Amino acid sequence: MTIDSDHDDAFDAALAARISWHYFKEGQTQEAIAGHLGLTRKRVNRMLAEARERGLVQITIQPPLGARSELEARLVRQFGLRQAIVVPAPIGDTDVRVMVGAAAGAYVSDHLAPGAALGIGWGGTINSAAQNIRRRSGQGNRVVLLCGGLAESTSINPYDNASMMARALDARCYYITAPMFAPTAELREAMTASEPIKSVLAMVPKLELALLSAVDLTEQSKALEYGVISRNDWRSLRAAGSVGDICGHYLGIDGNPVEHPLIARMVHPAMKSLLAIPLRVLAAGGLAKVAIIRAAIKAKLCHVLITDESAAAALLDS
After folding, report:
1. Whole-model pTM over 0.85
2. Is the CB of residue 280 less than 8 Å from the CB of residue 302?
3. Residue 12 to residues 47, 48, 249, 277: CA-CA distances in angstroms?
């Protein structure tokens, strides 16, 4: 049932931005958007046309994120953030990582200065961010991957993500040339003490910006789905009190690191190195991520939060 009037000629810029996001970014049909927002299809069609005429929609949606300014302001106040960016919650089965990643790519494009070094995590959100970076050339940027690699992975491969980001930025790329998990804690120590891994890890506290992703430990965890961690490790991490990890640091709900044998085998930057980065951006969305987002904020790993409206509302209500 629709609630709008086809005769309402007032242009609602915030509503037009939301409709444009669903149509151009998500690829939803006008009929689906109309049903989701309680509008007529005719009005959706008219607002899309007017959005283009007014310049709201160009090659990308400008600005696609303004409709949730109240949520953004509340997140900043409640959690002491520098900034919060909230994108519309996706319709249906659309992957929230695509939407949050698009916003993250836009943020990096706007805030990575010439000559600056960017550190990135891994996963679908980072992959989407890399696809949405505005291309530049000759600005002397560097990209540093903040984790090791995977022996087997889907298209969401840490090394591929870093390469894609570096190509878009015309940047030199640095990898931690080791597996994400060493076979033993002793081998992990030997790896991180050797070149070139040692040199890449030493770059981390000197980065200007870090784009971090969050790995949850819910039943929907992509780390579990992709086989990054085993079902046994997943169970024991949860039993140890972990709600997920940020850049290989498994955190409890209070933001403190938990103790677990898997962590001693992680090849990743030290927490103090991450905390030395002057601008830390966390891009994560969906209700499954709420607990680890909250933990990351408490751990001071997040200056800027990029998330979706469903996760934002849940964070504020908790």
Report:
1. no
2. yes
3. 9, 11, 43, 39
Q: What is the DSSP string of 150-186?
A: -SS--S--HHHHHHHHHHHHT-EEE---SBSB-SSHH
> Quick check: helix, strand or coil at residue 216?
strand
pLDDT (tens digit, 9 = 90+) per residue, 122-158? 999 999 999 889 999 999 999 999 999 887 666 678 8
Count of CB atoms within 10 A of residue 226's CB?
15
H-helix or E-strand containing 131? helix 124-131
**What integer best gives the mean pLDDT of the chain?**
90
Give the C-alpha separation, 11 to 23, whole Å. 18
136 touches 225 (CB < 8 A): no
Query: 27 pLDDT band (50/70/90 cuts)?
Result: confident
Cross-strand partners of 219: none
Helices and strands (H, E) in the chain, number of each type: 14, 10
143: enclosing H helix or E strand: strand 142-145
Beta bridge partners of 173: 143
Question: Coil, helix or strand for 94?
Answer: coil
Interhelix angle 41-53/30-37, rounded to 10 degrees, is: 110
Q: What is the DSSP string of 2-51?
A: ----TT-----HHHHHHHHIIIIIS---HHHHHHHHT--HHHHHHHHHHH
Domains defined along the chain, listed by start: 1-64 (1.10.10.10), 68-317 (3.40.50.1360)
